[in-house]
Amino acid sequence: MTLTTTRPSSTAAPVARKPAPSRRARVPYAFLAPGLLLFTLFLAAPIVYAGYLSLRKVKVSGLGLGSKSRTEVWAGLSNYTRSMTDPEWLPSVYRILGYGLVVVPAMLGLALLMALLLDAGRTRPGFSGFARISIFLPYAVPAVVASLLWGFLYLPRVSPFVYTLDKLGIHAPELLSSSWVLYAVANVAVWGGTGFNMIVLYTALRAVPTSLYESARIDGASELAIAWRIKIPIVLPSLIMTFVFSMIATLQVFAEPMTLKPLSNTISFTWTPLMKVYRDAFVRNDIYAAAATSVVIAVATFVLSFGFLKLVGRRAFNQEES
Questions:
Q1: In this predicted model, what pLDDT tens digit does every residue of 16-62 receive, in sequence order?
Q2: Structurally, what CATH architecture does the domain formed by 95-285 represent?
Q3: CA 62 to CA 69: how far, in whole Å?
Q4: What is the DSSP string of 101-141?
Q5: Which residue ranges does UniProt annotate as crossing the membrane (predicted)?
Q6: What is each CA distance from 25 to 30, 32, 37, 101, 272, in whole angstroms?
Q7: Would you say 228 and 174 are in contact if contact means Cβ atoms under 8 Å apart?
Q8: How many CB atoms sit inside 10 A of residue 225's CB?
Q9: For residues 128 and 124, what is the distance between their CA atoms, to the nearest angstrom?
Q10: What is the pLDDT of residues 193-219, one digit of tens each?
């Protein structure tokens, strides 16, 4: 009898191949593509182009009348130097700082107060929704329209407020004069922005479980103590977020003073840094200096926003060092 032995096969097990990406895996990128395309075309590309223009200038040959008499050449940092040494630059910066010191605390303070009052349950159930819509509605009004409306209310000859105060024997201040114009412009921003910030803070308050407030009331805490020791610390991250948004909007204020400018001689073409950009680009036809100023404003906005978040973010958002 013959015995036959079988040797084990020496062929190795086939290596598993990675499955090809399915269509489902590509779906998120398909949804993100329109947003990324719009971001690139209308935000990233203009920023890069503005940075490019800020480093260029026009060289004029001869009388500058020929087709090739004006050529674009490298300018280095000369546009930044010329823009920062403009006599109108520092006054506009100081003016916008004063504007921010008025607008941001007043707007966020009113927004927080209204959010706390609405959350306290002191308004009737049917009136609560009407109150929220009424407070938020000014935010839906475009800044140009709101500035025009308030501008005519500021003019002594057409303002019903001035007329009523005169009938009562009260002298109304000229709100578009040099002493009051900053507060007049700030009032438009506060009126329009308080509602949005109130909705953000009120939404954060509504997300807190009511059992937390009930426990505090059982312990004998008053509504004021609950607001100060529980509600405000809870909405602190939202309050910081609205502060950053308000600070960015303050540095970029343009529509309100530009709309009120024809109504008053106290608002110049360089009342704010962005108005100076507009003057350089469209009045003086110097897009290179305007681009340099725009880059400076963008960098200042980023530094202030990022610096503030780094300063208070760890405490407000409970971040821990890695």
A1: 555 555 677 788 888 999 999 999 999 899 989 999 999 998 887 76
A2: Orthogonal Bundle (1.10)
A3: 7
A4: HHHHHHHHHHHHHHHHHHHTT-S-HHHHHHHHHHHHHHHHS
A5: 27-52, 96-118, 130-155, 180-205, 234-255, 287-309
A6: 10, 13, 20, 49, 48
A7: no
A8: 13
A9: 6
A10: 999 999 999 999 988 888 888 888 888
Q: Where are the domains of the chain?
A: 48-60+69-85+290-317, 95-285
Would residue 77 be called left, alpha or beta, if left means φ above 0 and alpha means ψ between -120 and 50 degrees?
alpha
Residue whose C-alpha is closest to residue 80's, from 44, 59, 60, 50 = 50
Distance CA 153, CA 206 (A): 36
Q: Which residue has the tokens 């009045």?
A: 283
- Return the closest-CA partner of residue 246 out of 319, 304, 176, 310: 304
Q: Look at the block and give the residue holding tokens 């690139």.
A: 40
- In tens, the pLDDT along 264-287 reads 899 999 999 999 999 999 999 999
- The string of pLDDT tens digits covering residues 91-147 is 999 999 999 999 999 999 999 999 998 888 655 566 677 888 889 999 999 999 999
Rg (the chain; Cα; Å) = 30
Tokens of 292: 């340099």
Token pair, residue 136, equals 């938020």
Alpha helices in the chain (DSSP H): 23-39, 45-53, 78-84, 89-119, 125-140, 143-154, 160-167, 181-206, 210-218, 223-226, 232-234, 236-251, 255-260, 273-278, 287-316
Which pLDDT score is estimated for 320? 42
Which one-letter DSSP state was computed for residue 202?
H
Tokens standing for residue 293: 């100023």
Does 3 have pLDDT greater than 60?
A: no
Q: Which residue has the tokens 């920023």?
A: 47
Encoding tokens for residue 154? 């500021």
